[in-house]
Design goal:
By secondary structure, the protein is an alpha+beta fold. It has six helices and six strands. Strand 2 and strand 3 form a beta hairpin.
């Protein structure tokens, strides 16, 4: 992400958190309140730190910061990311729900809507944000 894109994301309300591993940043993850949900945004873990818990710790920390339903989007082709989120309790939503949620809560190009998936936590299903 370029410095300009980072500034833009922060100005739009994304708050970034980092995971420290022996004085180095092992990963970062953003959180953004949008309408009645909280979005997990921009998850990055250094390749040499993957599988060591940084992403999971960040996800648990950010999830614990809100009582709102949590949603996140990622590329449909990113099977490793989808597995990671599922391991941490998120569920894929249907194609119809994906398109509705991406258009309602994100500001992204239509091409990105077509090539992405949305995952939701249990609060999203229980609270009626996501239709089963």
């Amino acid at each position: 992400m370029s410095a300009e894109d980072l500034r833009s994301e922060i100005e739009s309300g994304v708050v970034f958190w980092g995971h420290d591993s022996d004085g180095d940043i092992a990963g970062v993850m953003g959180i953004q309140n949008v309408k009645d949900v909280t979005l997990i945004r921009h998850t990055y873990v250094r390749t040499n730190q993957q599988g060591r818990g940084a992403g999971g710790e960040l996800l648990r920390h950010l999830g614990g910061m809100t009582e709102r339903p949590l949603l996140l989007g990622t590329w449909a082709a990113a099977s490793w990311a989808i597995r990671f989120y599922q391991k941490h309790g998120f569920r894929l939503v249907s194609q119809a729900e994906k398109a509705r949620l991406l258009r309602e809560y994100w500001t992204i190009p239509e091409r990105q809507v077509e090539t992405s998936v949305v995952l939701a936590d249990e609060r999203s299903f229980a609270g009626g944000i996501v239709n089963p």
